[in-house]
Amino acid sequence: MKIKTLITTAALAVSILTVGSASAARVTSQYLNKTHQEVKNWAGYTNPSVYYDRAVCSRDMTAYACGQKIQLGTRFLQSKENSYPLSAKFIFAHEWGHTIQFKYNIYSRAPYQELQVDCVGGAFTYHGENSLGYRGLFRSAQGLAYAIGGDPTHGSGSQRAYYTRKGYNTGGRLESCF
Ligand SMILES: [Zn+2]
């Protein structure tokens, strides 16, 4: 009886830790600027200009990269953060990955062009968890990748989740994604 109680308590503690390991951030300019620095310091190779809520690549205010520009919609990022805490950081790193592809003329057929930068995003989650202290970042990113998959350009949810994990498993070395 006592052992059973202990086990139940232990299981509960684990589930609370897992669920509570990341909390939804408010997508403020501080949060985005900090994320920008984190991704920039980690990724190197490029130094794109980042625009919030400005149609520099597309009228669609989600997340885009074109050339050495990244365009991010803050309402879009907030909606993803609400369901997948910290996932705006993964999205940021994904778009950063595109700027590396564009700078170095790395082009693959669909959906591998996109899956390659899901790998970059996944690699950032390793760095985020292990060097920046963002517990739960990988789980959130993988959940998001799975949920938003399904179109021919980006790949299926399973493919997106797989490449996000592949990136995580590089130990934070984005070079391994290319
Ligand atoms: Zn993309």
What do these coordinates show?
With 178 residues, the protein is mainly alpha-helical. The chain has one domain (2-45, 78-177). The chain has seven helices and three strands; from the N terminus they run H-H-E-E-E-H-H-H-H-H. It has helices at residues 2-19, 29-43, 74-83, 87-103, 112-130, 137-148, 157-168, and strands at residues 49-52, 63-66, 69-72. The chain has a three-stranded mixed sheet. A hairpin with a 2-residue loop joins strand 2 (63-66) and strand 3 (69-72). The longest helix has 19 residues, at 112-130. The protein is globular, with a radius of gyration of 17 Å. The chain starts with a helix and ends in a 10-residue tail after the last helix. Residues 94, 98, 114, 117 line the site of zinc ion.
Task: Describe this structure in a few short sentences.
The chain is mainly alpha-helical and 178 residues long. The chain contains 7 helices and 3 strands; from the N terminus they run ααβββααααα.
SSE topology sketch:
Layout lengths: L1 H18 L9 H15 L5 E4 L10 E4 L2 E4 L1 H10 L3 H17 L8 H19 L6 H12 L8 H12 L10
Parallel strand pairs: 1-3
Antiparallel strand pairs: 2-3
The structure holds zinc ion.
Ends apart, CA distance between termini = 54 Å
Specify the biggest β-sheet.
3 strands, mixed
What proportion strand?
5-15%
Q: Can you give the helix content as a percent range?
A: 55-70%
Instruction: Work out the helix count.
Output: 7
- Distinct ligands, ions and cofactors found in the model: zinc ion
Outline, from the CA principal axes? Answer: globular
Average of the residue pLDDT scores: 90
- Count of the separate structural domains: 1
* Strand and helix order: HHEEEHHHHH
Low-confidence stretches: 1-21
Total beta strands = 3
Alpha-beta content class: mainly alpha
Biggest sheet: strands side by side, in what order? 1-3-2
Oligomer: single chain
